[in-house]
Amino acid sequence: MAEREMAHRVFAREFNDSRFQISSSSDVTSQADLHAPNFLVTTAGAKVNRLFIAGVITEVEDIGSHKGGEKELWRARVSDPTGTFTVYSGNFQPETSVFLSTVEVPSFVTIIGKVRSYEPGDGSVFVSLRPEEINHADENTRNRWMVDTAELTLDRLDVFEEALSSGISGMELFDHLSLKNVPSHIAEGVCMALDFYRTDRSYIQGMRKHIRDALFSIESSLSAVSGDLFDTEEFIMDLLQEMNGGKGMEYTELLRQAGSKNIPAVSVEKTVRSLLSEGHIYEPKVGFFRAIV
Amino acid sequence: MDERIAPHVEEISRALGNRYAEEIRIELEKLLQFKVPLDEAKRTILNRFMSRSPTSVQVKDLVSGMNSFDITGRIISIEKRTVTVQGEQRSVFTGSFGDGTGICSFTCWDDMSLKAGDAVRIKNAYTRLWNNRPELYFGKRSQIEKLPDGMVQGIEEMSHQNLKKLQDIAPADVVANSIVVIVEMYHRDVPMKGKLLTITEGVIADETAKLPFTSWTPLKGADIGSFIRFEGATVRIFRGLPSINFSESTAVSVISQPEDLPFTLESVSKASDPVPIGKVLEKSGIFDVTVAGNIISVRPGSGMIDRCPVCNRVTQKANCRAHGSVDCVSDMRIKFILDDGTGSLHVMLNCELSEVVYGKSMYEAEKMALESISKEVVYDDMKRVLTGKYIVIRGNSSRNEFGVTLVAKSAWYPNTDLKERISSLLERIEGKVIDDG
To answer: Domain B277-412 carries which CATH code?
Structure first.
């Protein structure tokens, strides 16, 4: 019995750059048997059949009814900080189609899906995902996916670099990488990607830079969500409760106090607005705030 | 004929690293005589030769189903037995064989005039699964070459002095020696030939792994926290997991001063850091392993289930496979596939763990099912709650026909600091990007 294909973690950019499809790995004589899975070999050497992605669903389109046909077909776009995955769900994926027809955009989702590719015939290849499972997610799940994917991709890029600097290719390279304890699916993918795409060092470096930018993007949101915003809120509430006499505390004074604690004015403003709307504080006079106790 | 198939022989041979050319030619000719299409014939031959182990192997690397390999070692023990094969009496020779990396059991189908202590190289041996473990087989189709005695470790050294770390105890091993600490221990009475025998069971550990053990003789002076050194313990395999057995022939000694051991009772008792799932899949089974990943699919069979009150089997429509129509007992469980990007495995959660992970008690789930007159509703709800979630699981893994399954002993949603991981990844990228100029 065939082992289950694992779900790879790949960023949208690398995925969308890829167009090399193979039907099966061990099959040298190309007569693939019916159940052999199809793989997409990515530019940086991941050999994927199934993907796990977490991102923001930004767009859902019912393209089945567009053409007036009876076929149900939903197209969704799910983005990560490096690019966008295209997802198609049709009649044979009833559960995911129902999900897509009702999902709110934008929102965080996780998708497990199989890789599909479409060749219009002009030499171009469009890769997409056909979902097996799809579910709501939260920002934390997305962030963790980003970090996991970054780590796994960086590991693979290191192998790729090793392959590039070794100067060998084909079976020889595969053996060389296997000796270095590289998992066989990665060694195989790297060998094939090197052969097909002629991926070079500048692409690998570019990929690293994209990953860096992606990590930066969530790093700042992490500190805003879990760290600063919460702290700012606590800080302002403490301050206001302390100065709760009279007509309250003046906003400029609040800004000055916050500034001395290195809290930027923008986040003070944001916090004050959210505290106001949540009813924790009120404005007895324009420009003055008091805590509700 | 020859000229026509020569390029194909060469092609197959090349795919196998320029080996077996002559054998391939014979096989290919034979298949073509049977009018097998050329492509199919080539595929068949390639598959057959691919499964051959290329060169010589060691005992520690033996797994079942290996064919035509060479192995060098020493016959440790050998005895002649008579077995009935297809109604025919036949003598076989069985015993144990070691090479310094481990000791396995073997069966030799023919009288090769071997005796205990012989140092040999066996060519064209194979392995099959026997008593849950890979066993070495050879017979008259194998060539046996006697080697000078000094080329292979002595019996005494092999069976008593080669200490192994627990994680290195391989499925083929029948005997093991190691230094470990006892982390769990309890006594149990078992009926044995009409008498009650008190045996000691528990768990031993070193810095590499934990394994269950059973002692059939009293362990004098040993308790939880004791460091012991054992020699000549027998290894049994259950569901791919080795278990260590101490008997009268095992030398077990309590070590009072565990000097320069890389582990302590505390260090082995902690939940270890998550292991990449790809590493877990390499093993046929691991005792007490921690993995972390995303739940990528909640499998059918999760949710509310009915069990037979007698045998605990899951029932279908109130019918037990063994006990017919029964009054079922309700239970809840979750089966899912966990994937961390290096591999995926099945995870089984019992009722208590399901409640923790799912966030609803069995009582609530039962009520949900009653209200909607369908048990599917619980399964659907579990999928909604769990799919995509990141989770840590600790338990025992074992390989079966469906892949590797991990039966969970505990499960939790981790609260790791992503910021720290991000900064270390960023540092790693900076290093590379700057290197490049």
So the answer is: 2.40.50.140
Return the pLDDT at B437: 46
User: For residue A260, is pLDDT > 80?
Assistant: no
How far CA B46 is from CA of A34, A97, A170, B16, B37, in Å, comes to 19, 43, 19, 8, 14
Q: pLDDT tens, A122-166?
A: 888 899 999 999 999 988 899 999 999 999 999 999 999 999 998
CATH homologous superfamily of A7-199 equals Nucleic acid-binding proteins (2.40.50.140)
The superfamily CATH assigns to domain B62-156 is Nucleic acid-binding proteins (2.40.50.140)
Cα–Cα distance measured from residue B59 to residue B368, given in angstroms and rounded to the nearest whole number: 55
**Angstroms from A249 CA to nearest CA on chain B:** 35
The domain defined by B163-267 folds into OB fold (Dihydrolipoamide Acetyltransferase, E2P) (2.40.50)
Residue pair B397/B286 in contact (Cβ under 8 Å)? The answer is yes
**A38-79 pLDDT, tens per residue?**
899 999 999 999 999 999 999 999 887 765 656 789 999 999
CATH code for residues A228-291:
1.10.10.10
- Rounded Cα distance between A235 and B247, Å, is 67
B344, exposed or middle or buried, with CB in 10 Å at 0-12, 13-18, 19+? buried
Q: Closest to B425 (Cβ–Cβ): which among A154, A209, A223?
A: A154
The interface predicted TM-score of the complex, written ipTM, equals: 0.74
Of A3, A7, A212, the CB nearest to B426: A212
Q: What percent of chain B has pLDDT over 70?
A: 95
